[in-house]
Design brief:
Structural class: alpha/beta
CATH topology: Rossmann fold
CATH superfamily: NAD(P)-binding Rossmann-like Domain
CATH class: Alpha Beta
Strand content: 15-25%
Helix content: 40-55%
Number of strands: 7
Shape: globular
Length: 249
Amino acid sequence: MRLQGKRAVVTGAAGALGRVIAETLAAEGADVAGLDLNAEGLESTAAAVRSHGTRALSAAVDLTDFDAVQDAVAGFVEEWGAIDILLNGAGGGAVSYFHEMTPETWNTQIDRNLNSVFNVTRAVLPSMLEQKHGRIINIASVAAIAGGRLVRGATAYATAKAGVVGLTKALAIEVADSGVTVNCLAPGAQGTNARDNDTPERREALLSQIPTRLLGEPEHLAQTVVFFAAPETVNVTGVILPLDGGHSI
């Protein structure tokens, strides 16, 4: 119960990874508010959070809509008084080779994976600055570090996630003396249901690029989120932590 009484916002909370993170935070004692477009999935995650005896809120919102995000987060703050933890986990990639890429594909990837992080962080940060305490944890990708070798044609996605890395470092410096820390996870390929359709050849091609030959486990990633959110990491900020089995070495 390292996060007893803390209030967390998790973006992408209706997804497989977001739900695991939300439920893990709740198991550590945190109240969790979810943001996602999928209202039905949000309610399922909220029920899982409540099963741990903590409070749950949710708002179905387009994270690329600045005003809608500000309104949703304002509702959370009004209900709970403040936000202690922000996990920016929403996003998603699209495969499109650069020489064929349209401006629409490029802008969509920047919106989904970088502008959404700005929108939510901008909404949450004033509450953290006011109480002089907060933990912001962003999820980037090994693609931001290694250029997307696991998936060819991920240039726009890698660019957006690299922006998340830059945002993490710059904001960590900006708020360093305010009691707010800003850190970032850079996961490699995760063993979610999305991998179930891999052919044996595709799976081997993937594992051959990972020194440990292991896919990431969402539960392990979620525990790393708890580490960054815990009181003991008050002096840990600006860290970009690869969770990639050595792929980025």
